């Protein structure tokens, strides 16, 4: 093991702040000050709830490499409740959440996963359906944050054929007439850098970052994957790969890059060590409200293409790829 100093360790932590584009929101000196016990004055309180989801966005957050989760959750925010991390269970959770909803302490509500509107008993907290807790807490929150595609647009849990009637956080707030500011951080899983940036922005300015028409941070969602794809030259040459891992544009393998907005080409996953296209796999559009498609991807020589079974999907995709999409 190579020994390194605390300062070098902090530099490593600071890299995620830079990667998230949040350096203007938190200087290295402020990080040093926080490390020495001088915590930022305005650390946002966080209440994290989970709905219909796989907990993958929490895992993504816990996997963040350059900054320890403990630093994020203690130095730059105050995590008041998280279902996977909290010790409180059962009645204690109800008491804690009720105290927050009825009290004066400001907090940000984070929701991971969708809300099973047609099957409320699928997600219960202290004998109450999740939707009721979301309404109570969202109404008193300084801001709401939808973490990941399931919270933003339903995702896998809202696929046709499921019985839970999952709706997004935005749909739930609209249904309940709750006007609390909302920010959407789609992707499956959510990128922890997007959450870090949003929290640091809130800490610095006491409000949410600038968003686009879908309430996503403009900083991360202004370009499609296609517009910044390292394989774009292949696309221009009409040089299409026929198998995963080959050189070439992956469009004919079902790539959803032309209709998916995210910043993966500049900030991949796991400390930018990799992401779909760099690994040789088509973008499956995990940050799009179209995710997941009934057929996410296929091989160039998929027999279903020959049989015309994917034709409808292909036509839809091509029309969107030509600019009639999101
Ligand atoms: S279609 Fe996919 S692989 Fe091809 S250039 Fe666009 S994003 Fe890249
Ligand atoms: S490349 Fe596409 S599927 Fe892969 S993580 Fe980015 S948005 Fe999601």
Give the H and E element order: HHEHHEHEEEEHEHEHEHHHHH
- Pick out the low-confidence regions: 309-326
> Could you report the average pLDDT, rounded to the nearest whole number?
83
Write down how many β-strands occur, each being a DSSP E stretch of 2 or more residues.
Answer: 9
The outline comes out as globular
* CATH homologous superfamily title of the largest domain: NADH:ubiquinone oxidoreductase-like, 20kDa subunit
DSSP strand (E) fraction? Answer: 5-15%
CATH architecture level-2 label of the largest domain? 3-Layer(aba) Sandwich
What does this structure look like?
The chain is an alpha/beta fold. It has 13 helices and 9 strands. The chain has 2 domains: 6-221, 3-Layer(aba) Sandwich (Rossmann fold); 223-326, Cytochrome-c3 hydrogenase, C-terminal domain (Cytochrome-c3 Hydrogenase, Chain A, domain 2, Irregular). It has helices spanning 6-19, 28-35, 56-62, 69-74, 91-102, 130-140, 149-153, 169-176, 192-205, 218-221, 232-236, 303-306, 311-324, and strands at residues 45-50, 78-81, 108-112, 115-116, 124-125, 128-129, 143-147, 166-167, 182-185. Strand 5 and strand 6 form a beta hairpin. The radius of gyration is 21 Å and the shape is globular. The chain starts with 5 loop residues before the first helix and ends with a helix. Residues 309-326 have low confidence and may be disordered. The site of one iron/sulfur cluster (SF4) has 14 residues, from helix 11.
């Amino acid at each position: 093991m190579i020994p390194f100093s605390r300062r070098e360790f902090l530099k490593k932590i600071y890299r995620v702040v830079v990667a998230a584009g949040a350096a203007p929101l938190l200087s290295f000196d402020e990080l040093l000050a926080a490390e020495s016990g001088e915590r930022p004055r305005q650390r946002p309180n966080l209440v994290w709830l989970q709905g219909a989801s796989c907990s993958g966005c929490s895992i993504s957050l816990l996997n963040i490499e350059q900054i320890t989760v403990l630093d994020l959750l203690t130095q730059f925010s105050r995590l008041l409740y998280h279902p996977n991390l909290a010790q409180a269970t059962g009645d204690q959770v109800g008491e804690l959440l009720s105290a927050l909803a009825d009290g004066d302490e400001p907090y940000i509500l984070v929701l991971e996963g969708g809300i099973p509107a047609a099957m409320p008993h699928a997600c219960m907290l202290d004998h109450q359906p999740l939707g009721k807790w979301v309404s109570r807490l969202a109404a008193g929150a300084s801001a709401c944050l939808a973490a990941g595609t399931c919270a933003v647009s339903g995702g896998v849990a809202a696929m046709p054929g499921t019985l839970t009637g999952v709706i997004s956080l935005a749909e739930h707030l609209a249904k309940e007439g709750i006007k609390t500011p909302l920010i959407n951080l789609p992707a499956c899983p959510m990128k922890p850098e997007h959450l870090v940036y949003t929290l640091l922005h809130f800490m610095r300015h006491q409000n949410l970052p600038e968003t686009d028409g879908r309430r996503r941070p403009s900083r991360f969602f202004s370009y499609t994957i296609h517009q910044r794809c390292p394989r774009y030259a292949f696309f221009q040459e009409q040089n299409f790969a026929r198998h995963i891992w080959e050189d070439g544009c992956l469009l004919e393998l079902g790539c959803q890059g032309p209709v998916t907005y995210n910043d993966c080409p500049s900030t991949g996953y796991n400390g930018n060590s990799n992401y779909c296209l760099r690994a040789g796999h088509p973008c499956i559009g995990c940050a799009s409200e179209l995710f997941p498609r009934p057929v996410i991807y296929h091989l160039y020589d998929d027999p279903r293409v020959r049989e015309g079974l994917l034709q409808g999907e292909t036509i839809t995709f091509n029309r969107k790829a030509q600019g009639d999409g999101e």
